[in-house]
């Protein structure tokens, strides 16, 4: 697998900041992954593995760093771009909050609505990311001819500030975006979001974004641009969904799930005992069962799997779902 990394931080037209990482391979599909962070320090981007491996607590979880999880996904989906979307904030360095996609309380528990702001933000995020990554790769390709000095210069620029406008200026691009190896010079990103097919994946708290997209489906279909984007979504994966709230971990409203069933999008659900067998959060298991049952009643052939069923619920197995789904 030929691949590399691009880190990006920017604002979309709605003036909401987002940070993403792109892992690229030989691709025919675009995978967008909403990751749940679990670190207990203040650093949320750039060289995440290096930071975690040196941290007195987080080193034990370095296998699940940004880079490593993206690499796992790249092996699982070898013909896809891998876009990892970071949460907009962390509360108490523990609770991932995707405020840029769904209204949330202090701890990141979602307050879902039918307004299709999440679809608009995701579409704008990808449009900017596609455009920006094209520019980065062209810049890196030119810089590659200058040898190691150019690469060292790019490396040093990591510690600079994040961009404050839509996309990045040429100076900001040098500061905030980096290709991690020379294989970045050998691939081409689609020129437009409309030219790509998409797979959406949410893990743990990242599933709140997928849920919000479901609530917006009915309204999103009425918008020409959003509907065109929606029709390019081929599959959605829920990986051991959970959040800090006391309900609505899984979507259980028939009218909402009917909209999903009508799209023809593939639906995948992969859970572990860590979430669905938790006696202190018993609603998660009940909601998951209802989610699956309602979709099946609407004729969806959902791929629903329980992993590590015979093992004691553990945080490690919660993360290991990345390796077995």
UniProtKB/TrEMBL annotation:
What is a single Pfam family found in this protein's UniProt entry?
A: C2orf69
Matching entries from InterPro entries are given as:
C2orf69_mit (IPR018881)
Q: Which domain of life is it from?
A: Eukaryota
Listed name of the protein: C2orf69 homolog
- Name the species this protein comes from: Gallus gallus
């Amino acid at each position: 697998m030929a691949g590399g990394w691009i880190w990006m931080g920017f604002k979309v037209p709605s003036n909401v900041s987002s940070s993403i990482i792109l892992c690229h391979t030989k691709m025919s599909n675009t995978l967008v992954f909403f990751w749940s962070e679990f670190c207990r320090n203040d650093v949320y981007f750039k060289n995440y593995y290096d930071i975690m491996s040196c941290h007195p607590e987080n080193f034990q979880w370095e296998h699940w760093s940004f880079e490593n999880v993206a690499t796992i996904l790249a092996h699982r989906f070898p013909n896809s771009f891998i876009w990892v979307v970071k949460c907009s904030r962390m509360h108490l360095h523990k609770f991932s909050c995707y405020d840029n996609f769904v209204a949330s309380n202090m701890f990141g528990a979602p307050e879902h609505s039918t307004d299709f702001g999440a679809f608009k933000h995701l579409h704008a995020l990808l449009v900017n990311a596609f455009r920006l990554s094209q520019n980065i790769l062209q810049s890196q390709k030119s810089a590659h001819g200058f040898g190691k000095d150019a690469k060292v210069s790019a490396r040093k620029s990591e510690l600079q500030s994040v961009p404050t406008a839509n996309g990045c200026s040429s100076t900001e691009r040098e500061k905030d975006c980096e290709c991690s190896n020379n294989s970045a010079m050998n691939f081409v990103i689609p020129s437009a979001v409309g030219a790509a097919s998409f797979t959406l994946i949410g893990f743990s708290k990242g599933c709140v974004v997928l849920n919000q997209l479901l609530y917006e489906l009915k309204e999103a279909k009425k918008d020409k641009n959003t509907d065109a984007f929606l029709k390019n979504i081929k599959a959605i994966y829920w990986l051991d969904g959970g959040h800090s709230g006391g309900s609505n971990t899984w979507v259980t409203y028939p009218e909402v799930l009917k909209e999903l069933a009508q799209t023809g999008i593939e639906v995948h659900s992969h859970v572990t005992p860590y979430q669905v067998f938790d006696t202190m959060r018993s609603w998660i298991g009940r909601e998951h069962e209802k989610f699956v049952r309602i979709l099946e009643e609407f004729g969806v052939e959902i791929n629903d799997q329980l992993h590590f069923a015979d093992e004691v619920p553990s945080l490690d197995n919660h993360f290991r779902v990345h390796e077995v789904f």
